[in-house]
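Reopening this ticket.

The earlier resolution said the output was attached, but the attachment link was broken on my side. Pasting everything inline this time so it's all in one place.
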Amino acid sequence: MDTSLMAPVTVVAILVIRTALVEMRHPGSARRQWCFLAHGRPMTAGATVAVLLSLVGWRAAGIASVAWALLAGALVAHLVHLSTGPEADKAENRNGEHH
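Inline output:
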């Protein structure tokens, strides 16, 4: 394995292990944590970021840029889901703001 791939692979492994440990303590938490994968808007945002970063980074870092781009895309998808999920809607409604 290319040594430049070790860092993103390690980060993904840590996230998976963390999800498994929290799931053992709180059943159903993994489903809630990774539910952004089933929603269109977060996945579109994440895929867009991943593709753009891959295209820009390919010349500079090669295959390692794709691994980092996928990781960044997943993070963006998760953040977009958090900002548009039901919890965000409830918080906005309490403050009197509307979309």
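Reporter confirms the inline version is readable. The mean pLDDT is 80. The longest helix spans residues 40-61.
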